[in-house]
Write a structure and sequence with these properties.
- The protein is an alpha+beta fold.
- The chain has one domain.
- The protein is about 40% helix and about 20% strand.
- Strands 1-2 form a two-stranded antiparallel ribbon.
- The longest helix has 14 residues.
Length: about 70
């Protein structure tokens, strides 16, 4: 479904002009590709004030083998 995903991404990008750089989350479903969301940031940046605490917790759990 790669071509359909690319086509959907292009259509979504045009709908969000003049924004020129968004990170798209697109899911492939049995009914075809679906846009889940667009992100201003492509890396793990998160505006949630608690995200540092959450990331610290997940890092600690991973280091203990919890995940």
């Amino acid at each position: 479904m790669w071509n359909a995903v690319v086509e959907l991404g292009k259509k979504a990008a045009l709908a969000f002009l003049p924004s020129k750089c968004l990170g798209w989350d697109i899911a492939v479903t049995p009914a075809g590709p679906v846009v889940i969301e667009a992100n201003r940031y492509w890396d793990p940046h998160n505006e949630d004030v608690e995200m540092r605490r959450v990331l610290r917790y997940l890092r600690d759990e991973c280091s203990r083998g919890g995940y």
